Amino acid sequence: MNAVETMGVRKSFGSGETRVEALRETDFAARFGELTFVVGPSGSGKTTLLSVIAGLLDHDGGSLRVLDADMEALSNGERLRFRRQNIGFLFQQYNLLPALTAAENVAVPLIAGGTPRKEAEARAASILQTVGLGSRLQALPAELSGGQQQRVALARALVHEPKLVICDEPTAALDHQTGDAVMNLLATHALVPDRAVVVVTHDTRVLDFANRIAYMDDGRIVRTEERPSLAEVS
Amino acid sequence: MRFIALRMLTADRSKYLGLIFAIAFCTFLLQNQSSIFAGIMRRTGSQIADVTEASVWVMDPQTEYFEQTKALKDTDLLRVRGVDGVAWAVRLFKGNPVAKTESGKYAVTTMVGIDDETLVGAPRKMLLGRWEDLRLPDSVIVDRAGYRLLYPGEGERLGRTIELNDHRLTVVGISDASASFTSFPIMHARYSEAVQFQGQERKQLSFVLAKPSAGLTPEQLCERIQKATGLRARTTDQFRWDCIRYYLRNTGIPVNFGITIFIALVVGTVVAGQTFYLFTIDNLRQFGTLKAIGVANRTLVGMIMLQALNAGAIGFALGTGMEVGFVSIFLHKIATRGLVLLWQSVAIAAACIIFVVLFASWLSIRRVLRLEAATVFRS
Description:
Number of domains of chain B: 2
Number of helices of chain B: 12
Structural class of chain B: alpha+beta
Distance between the termini of chain B: 25 Å
Order of helices and strands of chain B: HHHEHEEEEEEHEEEHEHEHHHHH
Mean pLDDT of chain A: 85
Low-confidence stretches of chain A: none
Oligomer: heterodimer
CATH class of chain A: Alpha Beta
CATH topology of chain A: Rossmann fold
Shape of chain A: globular
Radius of gyration of chain B: 29 Å
Largest sheet of chain A: 6 strands, mixed
Radius of gyration of chain A: 17 Å
Low-confidence stretches of chain B: none
Order of helices and strands of chain A: EEEHEEHEHHHEHEEEH
Number of helices of chain A: 7
Shape of chain B: elongated
Mean pLDDT of chain B: 87
Helix content of chain A: 25-40%
Structural class of chain A: alpha/beta
Strand order of the largest sheet of chain A: 6-7-8-3-9-10
Largest sheet of chain B: 12 strands, mixed
């Protein structure tokens, strides 16, 4: 079953001569229980597709179903709630709040959803243990290495048990070894049967982790490739 | 989300302190200038307030304020006494003779001549000597500020002689009279002597002080006196406000202070607003991340308001503390005594700081609400 399904999705920015069509009749699907990679050259529309899927950007046309919900039919408030409950984010620059400790950062999605702070931080501590940062709960982001920060960000993306995890260049700022370690953690902890993971990347070193790779160019998915992932093989 | 908002606010200490101090100095300036202004305005009627026994002041209809009087006829005292409802009425002289000390120091003074028999109007707050000693011939009481002006660097002692219009007087007391607007030494003497110190004029009676009979308010007595005599009668409070209004109308003082207060408000608003706005800009990625995660706009607005109110409240408290410190130090200095921190000054400053905080929040809120959450994907 598809967790994400777009059919003929269009999105453009600007108007007149400065109009840029970022997505042109884009058809894309991501299945539950799979790591789906979206790859392509810069400016091909990968990040726009990701933003549209996550409900951060409105699309201009076409149909978009995420976790069986018609995104067009949702009001702004419903879309916000939907995102809060069902989507986890992993960013290239980690986007941790520098004033909060690792545990507090991880607890943010739970607190935003109304979980009491104490309970949220306990759950955050638990998930930080699973990504190997049990001893750095009180560390500020500035006190952590890049790899550790991305593991905190991964814990934050998973703490509220979302059904869809969206990752934007999660290894771009990491060296090969650390990138592999983060991808391993992502494959190990994010991949469960009722969850889908969509990864946008330029990093060809981590393509072996993908179950499906959607190649994107000029606002369209030009080719999709299915393959057993490294995680599955191992 | 409150703790997140506060952590974000205080994470960068230098920016946080900059914001707090901008608001604190704005608060201090607003309160300080309004306090000094209020102190100066209070001085215009301080000699009226110092007369505690009488509650009605009767004067010539042309007399607008304490410093500038048109003399009454001596018979006016009797006319006032004849008004139904007057418990008692006494005369009061106010003039500005020049005093000269043994060492040759000169100073224009504010001479208050009080009723010889009752001594109504004598200074009740004495620092040295007794006001009853004014009954002694050729005696005068000088206020402390005046004494220090006439005898700079010398210890306070009684029995010194002072010369006014060729009359040699003995200082029998040093009073703690309220600071006057002109800062002249304030001297009290008996009426019959005080009128001799000014150049001889046909009419010398400046004011008649009166007290209403039991059951009659000062306002009612004023009406009766005005009706019966055609003279102007004001309660103590009304006369003090007459003086304040006169200076407000006829001097540049309110304009000068108004400009300073306005500049303090503008500078405070701009500096605090800009600092807070820059703080928000610096944290835009964090707000974007929160938006992406699913934090509602109203929650973000609440966070920004909390940050602004926190900085505003701490800055206001600090600024008020600075002003309280300023007032408590300078209240006891001779030149600045009478300085007063009115609750109205605090309230007006608080209202201004709330405006500053709302303005700063508004700038930041606009920016955050317009922020597209998708920007978090940009590296």
